[in-house]
Amino acid sequence: MGIQWQSQRRFLRFGTKTEAVFRVPWAVQMFPAIVLFVALFFIPESPRWLASQDRWEEALDVLASVHGQGNHQATIVQAQYAEIRESMAVAESQGEVKWAELIHPDNIHRISNGIFVHIWTQLSGNNALLYYIVYIFQMAGLTGNVKLIASSVQYIINVVFTLPAIFFLDRIGRRPALIGGAFFMMIWLYSTAGVMAQYGHYVPGGFDGSTAAAVIAFTYLLVATYSFTWAPISWCYPSEIYHIRLRGKA
After folding, report:
1. I need a labelling partner for 170 at 20 to 30 A (CA). Which of 11, 26, 80, 143 fits?
2. Is 162 a domain residue?
3. Which tens digits make up the pLDDT trace of 164-190?
4. Number of Cβ atoms within 10 Å of the Cβ of 224
5. Domain-embedded: residue 165
6. Does any domain span residue 39?
7. How many domains does the chain have?
């Protein structure tokens, strides 16, 4: 959202008839990338990976730093350390993980579920809307900075509705949220398509009044629904259904 606001400010400042319209937003995006690059040097290594490399002391140090405020004897640190040792012992007894195991009849169902959750997240229509929303709003009669501001609101909605999902999805459950999200996104997409088919015209014609307001409302509702359901679940669901032995390759 910070990048979007930076871009918005540059558009408002430079207008739409200068190269700064796209050069400045691109340049601004370097700063978060630089911060991320520097911060990566301070991120601890995965304790499971360290354990897999037989670097147990370092794995314990990471667990203590992350979960025990440096206390190696903290209950949660020792519990996770013991769990990692147990899982590593089981993995060693089963031998090295082969790529063929991913398509084994015992695993193919969960692997395909994890893959297709991501596929349908991309095909849900939200990404297409993000790309073409400026043109949709242009058809709705918005022009200039008003069109830009209206289209940038979707990014704010995206962030605002993703945050509560972190707290409520554990109560709702993954499957009900996916089903409900798909159902309501279908309604918003069909509603938008129906309104545009009935009242819309090719740009620069477009439509206005209550029709334009309806299209804008439906697009915002789609982004909100997607951000609360499919967007966050597509990242946590696969990691929860994969067998821990297969996660590295899956």
Report:
1. 80
2. yes
3. 888 888 888 888 999 999 999 999 989
4. 19
5. yes
6. no
7. 1
